[in-house]
User: What shape does this take?
Amino acid sequence: MSLNLAAEKQVAIAAVRRACVLTSSVFNKLVKNETVTKDDKSPVTVGDYSAQAVVNTILSRTFPDDPIVGEEDATDLRQESGFALRDRIIQLANECITGELVPGEKEEWGLGPNQSQSVDELLDAIDRGNYDGGSTGRMWTLDPIDGTKGFLRGEQYAVCLALIINARVELGVIGCPNLPVNGANPSGPRGCIFYAVRGQGAFQVPLADPFTTTPTRVSIPVLPGDQLNLLESVEKAHAKLSFNELVARELGVTRAPTRMDSQAKYCALARGDGGVYLRIPTGTGYKEKIWDHAPGSVLVEEAGGIITDSRGQPLNFGLGRTLGENYGVIGAGKDVHPRVLAAVQKVQRESPEEA
Ligand SMILES: Nc1ncnc2c1ncn2[C@@H]1O[C@H](COP(=O)(O)O)[C@@H](O)[C@H]1OP(=O)(O)O
Ligand SMILES: [Mg+2]
Ligand SMILES: [Mg+2]
Ligand SMILES: [Mg+2]
Assistant: This one.
């Protein structure tokens, strides 16, 4: 049975759209000291923090009882060394929150010219993302900028939001400011939002006008073998790309892989640009985070695809902030997925040094 979730969907699309407008405008203004390196060596920018502040502010107003598992936290911004960064983040978040309402938005969501927030309110909003997750109840999960490295390069990144209920992803929304609206026309207009409610299909709308445009339903087409290619990370530290080459050979895939940062890969898969999402761990013990896969997985499933790990098991969103021990991620259309899983397992058996 499909849950209705019409209100959640509307709010989530509006929140993601605002955050996309914010992050694309930040990109054009970003200066060097506005990016810092986190303890895990990954970058975080004023864009990540301010986008999390905006989305969490909206969620707190609309669904005050729902906890949020968000990637960022405000600890560094509460220390004196973070004050310059903090002030910039507050300014950006408030500019975004106080922007004029567009069709589909409501002032009671905490948006519009009268809704400016104090420093403490916005830092607390960021920290509302510190929920530990778990297997029961409702929770949102947010990646305010997924693919920060892609964002910094001016390439693909995504604003990613999902609603998880009793460990099942029920709603996913992904905003891709730099993704071409039509995958077959890469130099055409850019900026799309993808969304899916479980049981209701997967859709794409333009970022510029998500509420008054008729949504386009997306689904994974049956692609002939010679048209399959792999969608994979840009960053070698994130996934074992040499393994992907062996899998491609095993599958008889001759097309070059498409390298793309962020969950934009799941969006590309969902609308048939590509065919296989493949992410094999690099052996560093990194655990995948729920916000990096929750919206993408429901989107692909609603587009007619299958998402599993390399054992063929579904991803478990009920273990906390991470997906637990990392067995990688395989996504593909229903017809292709069994072949990819078999190829992955064959390469694991035959090239254990790669697996
Ligand atoms: N060592 C790592 N291994 C795997 N994924 C990582 C690692 N470090 C960061 N990530 C996250 O991987 C995702 C990017 O994946 P991809 O390589 O598919 O673009 C991002 O969510 C990124 O976080 P972030 O959201 O901070 O950018
Ligand atoms: Mg990050
Ligand atoms: Mg991410
Ligand atoms: Mg991120």
Remarks:
- Residues 287 and 325 are 6 Å apart (CA to CA).
